[in-house]
Design goal:
Rossmann fold; 51% helix
Length: 473
């Protein structure tokens, strides 16, 4: 999806997030919006700066407010002067009325060409004061991409911002967008006093809801002349969990695949191919798609070492049939990950919010383990994974055999069961042992790290074959 929450009919997504943040700002309380990589913080901040959103959210009282969006990536240099310059520049861009203020224009010119270093904060203060006095509106400064400035520039800048808020409690408020809470960004007295402004107004951004995913994906498909099914929506939501960056990547793959099918079958075709087959092909593509894998990598890179270890522990213990309460050492860390919406509670167990992220964690947990320790059949996608990584796509017969073995895991499967499940009862007299062995051999070549010493699909002489769920035992 594009980096906007607007839909073609003028409506927008993330109504709950907008409502909660506006509730804080109506009381002129400072708010920090938090969220992990590409979850949509910037899109929300830009939406909150638009007048019609305020009008829809709070009614006529919206006229009393002047929200000013400030993208800190536009700073010309990472200094106090660079920060102050950007704020005054954005104030001038906010409305013709503000831009025309002589006092603001003069302050801006002094700030960019100061006679000495003292004129930098002084000219900023004068420019801000000019706006507050002239507009008689409640000013909301919205600092997007605030992580680097807060961590890097002179801390007295934030002490100055705190002082401005203290002197104008009913006419000035700030909203920041960062990956982590401001209190973790830097230490020191000046910074901590600024952080106090946000102490009880923290909004953790979650992935998009299923409803928003539906609205966005149906609109995108309609724009491209492609019809989606409810199964397509479920497939997208299951794999992306509502993460905008992942949705953009997967939806693009799906729309391309469906458009290609329409081109091949013609516009009058009753149905576009078998959806299950399409989703299965896309599952293979996702695992090798640079954009989608990069989104997962950025999320994991944004985790601390402690958080990463907790995610890996959750994965390892869950594979042994244990539940989250047994992770006593990581309990607090896991709770924090759940608060950040990286983990969800599903049937009493914590799970990554998307299947793409879950597989990325599995792959991370498999690195340097040296041996294949887990084989899993994904019944939804039809993929077979070894240590979290998808194996080469199985043929129809190989997949039927894999399903049979998986359904009877740790049990012996004999010739009769194999022939009946793979070929059908009509072939009981025509399929001999050699043909079964050949199929077993082909399947092993795709799932076993070393076919000379099978770890998963073992032979029980004189009786049949068995799929081991725990080769280590």
């Amino acid at each position: 999806m594009s980096n906007t929450l607007r839909l073609s009919d003028g409506s927008y997504m993330r109504h709950l997030d907008v409502r909660r943040v506006l509730d804080y700002l109506l009381e002129m309380k400072c708010v920090e919006v938090l969220g992990f990589s590409n979850i949509g913080k910037s899109a929300l901040m830009r939406l909150l700066a638009q007048p019609d959103v305020w009008t829809q959210g709070v009614g006529e009282v919206s006229r009393e407010f002047l929200p000013v969006y400030i993208d800190c990536n536009r700073m010309l240099e990472m200094t106090d002067q660079g920060f102050y310059e950007l704020v005054l520049r954005c104030l001038q861009e906010s409305s013709p009325e503000v831009a025309a203020l002589p006092a603001l224009q003069e302050a801006y010119q002094t700030l960019v060409q100061p006679q000495n270093e003292f004129q930098v904060p002084l000219s900023f203060n004068r420019g801000l004061r000019a706006v507050l006095d002239a507009t008689q509106r409640k000013l909301i400064l919205m600092f997007d991409e605030f992580d680097e400035p807060f961590a890097s520039i002179e801390s007295r800048v934030f002490l100055n911002l705190r002082a401005k808020k203290d002197r104008n409690p009913d006419s000035l408020a700030y909203i920041t967008a960062t990956n982590r809470p401001l209190t973790t960004g830097r230490s020191g007295l000046h910074s901590s006093e600024f952080c106090e402004l946000f102490a009880h107004q923290r909004w953790q951004l979650a992935p998009l809801t299923l409803s928003d995913v539906e609205r966005n994906t149906y609109q995108r498909a309609e724009e491209q002349g492609v019809t989606l099914t409810p199964g397509d929506i479920h497939f997208i939501y299951q794999w992306t969990g509502g993460h905008p960056g992942m949705m953009e990547g997967l939806l693009g793959l799906l729309l391309d695949e469906l458009a290609k099918q329409v081109d091949e079958t013609g516009p009058d075709a009753k149905e576009v191919d078998d959806r299950w087959a399409i989703h299965r092909r896309l599952t293979e593509q996702m695992r090798h798609n640079d954009t989608l894998q990069r989104e997962c990598a950025k999320i994991l890179q944004g985790c601390t070492a402690t958080e990463t270890e907790a995610l890996l522990s959750l994965y390892r213990l869950d594979n042994r049939g244990l539940t989250a309460p047994q992770l006593q050492a990581e309990a607090q860390v896991l709770d924090r990950l759940a608060e950040r919406h990286l983990l969800l509670s599903v049937e009493g167990k914590l799970r990554p919010f998307s299947r793409l992220l879950a597989e990325a964690i599995q792959r991370l947990g498999s690195v340097d383990q040296g041996e294949a320790t887990e084989l899993r059949v994904d019944l939804d996608s039809g993929a077979v994974l070894v240590n979290g990584a998808a194996v080469e796509t199985l043929t129809a017969l190989e997949y039927k055999l894999m399903l049979l073995l998986n359904e009877n895991a740790d049990k012996i499967v004999d010739k009769y069961q194999i022939v009946t499940a793979v070929w059908g009862e009509a072939y009981l007299d025509s399929v001999d042992d050699a043909r079964i062995e050949k199929l077993i051999s082909r399947l092993r070549q795709k799932v076993e790290p070393d076919t000379s010493t099978p770890r998963f699909i073992t032979t029980v002489r004189g009786r049949g074959y068995r799929l081991l769920t725990d080769p280590e035992s």
